[in-house]
UniProtKB/TrEMBL annotation, chain A:
Keywords: Cytoplasm, Kinase, Magnesium, Metal-binding, Phosphotransferase system, Pyruvate, Sugar transport, Transferase, Transport. The keyword Heme does not apply. GO terms for biological process: phosphoenolpyruvate-dependent sugar phosphotransferase system. The gene is ptsP. It comes from Planococcus halotolerans. This is Phosphoenolpyruvate-protein phosphotransferase. It holds the Pfam family PEP-utilizers.
TrEMBL record, chain B:
It comes from Planococcus halotolerans. PROSITE patterns: PTS_HPR_DOM (PS51350), PTS_HPR_HIS (PS00369), PTS_HPR_SER (PS00589). Transmembrane segments: none annotated. Its main location: cytoplasm. GO terms for biological process: phosphoenolpyruvate-dependent sugar phosphotransferase system. This is Phosphocarrier protein HPr.
Length: 572, 88
């Protein structure tokens, strides 16, 4: 009968195969008194020697199968077998208490296992399993019972076990082992880590697993959801076969795109960038193939604390991001607080309409010291990478000029103080207020670049708060009014030889990307997890083809019309 | 007897790989070699002893060597610490 069990998704992927129960032999023994401790100690040393030989073999096999780094754990196991703090107390116990080797080994190894199991660090807790693994091998030799050998498996199976020990897992031949399911263990246990290394699916921590499932049961393992299905129906098998293929296709296709350029089918190159909120997001951005950071939201450095970050603290955080990005550009947006983003240590008057109030650049120009500190920290960090700076919420040219003036003054001060900075930092603006979009042709003469912030641009243009359910239907990214404004901004930039990017959620949307490509957008900045998908989409689109449709799209009357039009284009 | 302090800089603290490297290094020497951490002393030739301390990143440990080859042992310990990147 079909049964579904759930556990922790420990390694991605899907497999369908028969089960193979991997069970340890019984290692039960009685505590015995002995007469000849010398003989007992010799018996113990023999068991240690045989276990060491076996572990050497396993280590060699592991080095070949999964590499020296993963095999190093068996070096540590061998070291445990010769550990003076383990061997010494055991032989002493045999000698002084006149007990059998099995009992002495069990007592002493238990003491160490308890120490590790009680640590509050997950990694250390898992080490108790290492000691148990070594202990059981020696115990088996003392008792003269055979240890199971999963290396002998020669047909496709999904392994079921109470827990998989490291010496079990390396003997697996990945050709036959389709996945594994264990009753205990977590995401950081050996079995989970090795499954990810071998790229086979694994679900761990499945309660009552061994009591529920017998050998040779047909099983589906879904390592993405952390689910197993025993005795699946024909329909379930078909469904999961399809999911397995989809999963593998997606993985191969996307992985191949990580270091690939972002080029359309007809050879037009764009830049795909990531939006980040803190230095720790850089890693994931790069792993997802980001070619730049298109929006570094610096306000997060000001949040979750009880005073303003110092110039030095800011300098360090900006430098960290720039160093990690190397030659790749990082666009830092200066402080954007006020509105919905409040700081506990900055007492701002309550406003009736905070989204139309004192926020972002307006606040910075109102509090120039705060702004100058940030500009100085950014300038100093510029020697560590490829920095660009942009100001948020610019509504008038005057605001840009004032902000730029403060920037130039801080540059001059640093120069007088002989503090190094990059002299050629591009300074741009966010386009998120309709007045600026309309005046883009004049802005383009003075700024180095535009980055269109669609989230705010849409809500200001439509005068609709997207958080307000009563009007959220008016928050329409595909409204031709928005698209026309985006076109004005891109065209204005290009006319002056500048570049235009977009850092709102729209930049990674499936139906928006073809339109934006046709409009000639240079940089698309989005959450890191959307980059590879977007790169794949762009590679299948022709820029010239999309350009031909631009006029027709902009002449449509409603957001629905636009979506329908583009859906049909993409489906073709 | 010779003694030296080390600050553990590895983010994961004293985990299995560097601990094995360290134990492997000192096991070759005749001297009695101890590691002290938070008032607890363990035999540095014992991987279980070293790991059981749960030494975290940023901790300061004192290593002492006592015996005929103590100086040579300490030099190798410093080398191993650096090579493993757990201390500088």
């Amino acid at each position: 009968m079909t049964a579904e069990l759930y556990g922790i998704a420990a390694s991605d992927g899907i497999a369908i195969a028969k089960t193979y129960r991997l069970e340890s032999p019984s290692l039960e023994f009685d505590k015995k008194s002995i007469d000849d401790p010398a003989l007992e100690i010799e018996r113990f040393h023999t068991a240690i020697a045989v276990s060491s030989e076996e572990l050497e073999l396993i280590k060699d096999q592991a080095e070949m199968q999964i590499g020296p780094k993963e095999a190093a754990i068996f070096g540590a196991h061998l070291m445990v077998l010769s550990d003076p703090e383990l061997i010494g107390p055991i032989t002493e116990k045999i000698e002084n208490d006149l007990v059998n080797a099995e009992f002495a080994l069990h007592e002493v190894s238990d003491m160490f296992m308890n120490i590790f199991a009680s640590m509050d660090n997950d990694y250390m807790k898992e080490r108790a399993a290492d000691i148990k693994d070594v202990r059981n091998r020696v115990l088996a030799h003392l008792l003269g019972v055979k240890f199971p050998n999963p290396g002998l498996i020669s047909e496709k199976v999904i392994l079921l076990a109470d827990d998989l020990t490291p010496s079990d897992t390396v003997q697996f031949n990945p050709e036959f082992i389709q996945g594994f399911v264990t009753e205990i263990g977590g995401r950081t246990s050996h079995s989970a880590i090795l499954a990810r290394t071998l790229e086979i699916p694994a679900v761990v921590g499945v309660k009552k697993l061994m009591a529920s499932l017998s050998d040779e049961t047909m099983l589906i393992i879904d390592g993405i959801e952390g689910k197993i299905i025993a005795d699946p129906t024909e329909e379930q098998i078909e469904l999961y076969k399809k999911r397995k293929i989809d999963f593998e296709d997606r993985k191969t296709a996307l992985a191949a795109l990580k270091d690939a350029p972002s080029v359309s089918a007809d050879g037009f190159k764009v830049e795909l960038a990531a939006n980040i909120g803190s230095p720790k997001d850089v890693k994931s951005a790069l792993e997802n193939g980001a070619e730049a950071i298109g929006l570094f939201r610096t306000e997060f450095l000001y949040m979750g604390r009880d005073s303003f970050p110092t110039e030095e603290q800011q300098f360090e955080m900006y430098s960290e991001v720039l160093k990690a990005m190397g030659d790749k550009p990082t666009v830092a947006r200066t402080l954007d607080i006020g509105g919905d983003k409040e700081l506990s240590y900055l007492d701002l008057p309550k406003e009736l309409n905070p989204f139309l109030g004192l926020r972002a650049i307006r606040l910075c120009l109102e509090m120039p010291d705060l702004f100058r500190t940030q500009l100085r920290a950014l300038l100093r960090s510029s020697v560590h990478g490829n920095l660009k700076i942009m100001f948020p919420m610019i509504a008038t040219l005057d605001e840009f000029r004032q902000a730029k003036q403060l920037f130039l003054e801080e540059q001059e001060k640093l120069a007088t103080e002989n503090i190094p900075f990059n002299n050629n930092i591009e300074v741009g603006i966010m386009v998120e207020i309709p007045s600026t979009a309309v005046m883009a042709d004049l802005f383009a003469k003075e700024v180095d670049f535009f980055s269109i912030g669609t989230n705010d641009l849409i809500q200001y243009t439509m005068a609709a708060d997207r958080m307000n359910e009563n009007v959220s239907h008016l928050y329409q990214p595909f409204n031709p009014a928005i698209l026309r404004m985006v076109k004005m901004v891109i065209d204005a930039a290009h006319k002056e030889g500048k570049w235009a990017g977009m850092c709102g959620e729209m930049a990674g949307e499936e139906l928006a990307v073809p339109i934006l490509l046709g409009l000639g957008l240079d940089e698309f900045s989005m959450s890191a997890s959307s980059i590879l998908k977007t790169r794949s989409m762009i590679s299948s689109l022709s820029k010239a083809e999309m350009e031909k449709h631009t006029d027709s799209i902009l002449a449509l009357a409603t957001a629905e019309d636009v979506k329908n039009y583009v859906s049909q284009l993409v489906d073709k | 007897m010779t003694e030296k302090q080390f600050t553990i800089t590895d983010e994961a603290g004293m985990h299995a790989r560097p601990a094995s490297a360290l134990v492997g290094t000192v096991s070759k020497f005749k001297s009695d070699i101890q590691l002290e951490y938070k008032g607890k002393k363990v035999n540095l030739k014992s991987i279980l002893g070293v790991m059981s301390l749960g030494i975290s990143s940023g901790s300061v440990v004192t290593i002492s060597a006592d015996g005929e080859d103590e100086d040579e042992a300490m030099a190798k310990i410093e080398e191993a610490m650096k090579a493993e990147g757990i201390s500088n």
